[in-house]
Amino acid sequence: MSFSTLGLSAPLLKAVKEEGYSEPTPIQKQAIPVILSRKDILAGAQTGTGKTAGFTLPLLELLSSKPANAKHKVRALIITPTRELAAQVGESVEIYGKYLGFKSAVIFGGVKINPQLVKLRKGVDIVIATPGRLLDHISQKSIDLRAVEFLVLDEADRMLDMGFINDIKKILATLPKQKQTLLFSATYSDDIKKLSDKLLNSPVLIEVARPNIASESVKQAVYPVDRERKRELLTHLISDGEWKQVLVFTRTKHGANRLAGQLEKDGITAVAIHGNKSQNARTKALDDFKNGEVRVLVATDIAARGIDIDQLPHVVNYELPNVPEDYVHRIGRTGRAGKEGEAISLVCVDENEYLANIEKLIKKDIAKVWLKEFKPDPSIKAEAINQGGGRGKNSRSGAKNRPSEKSTRRKK
Questions:
Q1: Helices 165-172 & 131-139 angle (0-180, nearest 10)
Q2: What's the fold here for domain 218-381?
Q3: Cβ contacts of residue 86 below 8 Å, gap of 6+?
Q4: Can you give the pLDDT at residue 402?
C-alpha cells in the first residue's frame, strides 16, 4: 500500500515523497482513512510507529478541504505533554503542510511569551501547545479557540501521569462542543479508557500493537550490579563497546546532572536534559547529541518525550522506572523503523521488585548478563522499595509529585 491510496491530496503526497517515505506505517494505514471520514478515534500505538504523521497528514487534508479564513482563526488544536514533543509535532506540521499555506504556532513554557503573543495576534490556523502555557494564553485572552474544528491529544497517558487532567478540563471548557477529537496514547490504560469515554463521540478504536509490549527489534538485557558501581559499569560498557550514541535514563533531575558530570570526568562527553533546564539548554543538548558532539544524553522520562532520533543504537536504564509502562516507553527510543537496537538495564538489589513488575508487564523474562568484575556483593541487602518517597508495586498514583510545566510556571 502506498500513501496515494489513503485519500491524501497532491500537495501532501508531494511533501511525503520529499521526506523519503513511500509506504505508510501500520498506524498510518489504519488511522488516516478513519480520520478523513471525520470520526473520533482512540489510537494506541508504541512510540516510533509514525503516529505523529498518522494524525498530522489527515488533519492537514481536512483543513485544506475548506478554504482558510483570511484572519487565520485557530481551527486545529494539538495538545502535547512536553515542550520537546510540541516542537516535534510542530516540525511535522510545517514539513507536511509546506505546500498548503496554513499558518501554525508552537507554544510552550520555559521561553518568553511575547514572541508567541506576536505570532498569535497575526493569526494562525493550527496551534500545537503544552497545557500550562496554553492556559496562560487563554487567561490573557491572547488566543481564541471558539473556531476549533479539530482537537488532538497526543501522548494522553503522559499528560495524565503529569497531573494535567485539570488543565485539560479547563481547556476543553473553552472549545466548541462540535469538533472532531483524536486521542493518541503510547500506552492503553484504564485511565485512558475513562478519559476517552468523556471526550470522544463513538470513537473508532485503533491498536497496531499489543498494549505495553516491547518491540521485538530491541535486544534487552539486565546487568545486575551494586548501586555504588553503576556509574563504573556504565563507563565500562560505553568505552569497551565503543558506543558512539547512548541515551541514558535516570529517575530524577539531580541524578541526571550528577551522572552527566561523572561521565565527563571519566572522559566520556555527556549532557543532561530535564525539566529544570531552560528551553535553549534543552534544545542545544539534544542538537549536540544528534550531531554526535556528545556521546551520552542523560534524560528523565518527562524530558525524553518527543526525543526522536533515527537509528539510535543504545538505550540504558541507569535506574529502573517506578512505573513499569515507562520501561516500554524508554526502550522504544531504539529499534525504530525495523532497525535493531539494544536496551540495557543496570539493576541493583533494591530494584528487583521494579524488574519483576516490568517482566510481568511485557510477559517475558529479560536476559541477565553477569560480568565477573561487577558481580553484586551478596552481603548487600535490598532496601525497602518505598523508602525515601518511592511508590509501591504497580502504583500509578503520586503524579502530583512529578515535575510538570504547570508547577514550573508557578515558580516564575
A1: 40
A2: Rossmann fold (3.40.50)
A3: 80, 106, 107, 108, 128, 129, 130, 306
A4: 38
CB 3 within 8 A of CB 14: no
In this structure, how many other beta carbons lie within 10 angstroms of the beta carbon of residue 258?
15
Q: Please name the residue that has the C-alpha cell 515542550.
A: 83
Distance CA 50, CA 54 (A): 6
Q: How confident is the model at residue 53, as a pLDDT?
A: 92
Contact 156, 105 (CB under 8 A): no
Question: What DSSP string runs through 30-70?
Answer: HHHHHHHTT--EEEE--TTSSHHHHHHHHHHHHHHTSPPPT
User: If we measure between CA atoms, which residue out of 359, 311, 50, 352 comes closest to residue 214?
Assistant: 359
In the predicted structure, residue 358 carries a pLDDT above the cut 90: yes
Q: How confident is the model at residue 312 (pLDDT cuts 50, 70, 90)?
A: confident
DSSP characters over 9-22? -HHHHHHHHHTT--
**Calpha distance 153→106 (Å, rounded):** 15
The per-residue pLDDT for 278 is 77
- The segment(s) of the chain belonging to CATH 3.40.50.300 are 3-207, 218-381
In the numeric block, the cell 517482566 is attached to 359
Q: If one looks up domain 3-207 in CATH, what number appears?
A: 3.40.50.300
Measure the CA–CA gap between 335 and 340, rounded to whole angstroms: 5
* pLDDT tens digits, 74-105: 999 999 988 888 988 999 999 999 999 899 99
The answer to whether 48 and 332 are in contact (CB under 8 A) is: yes
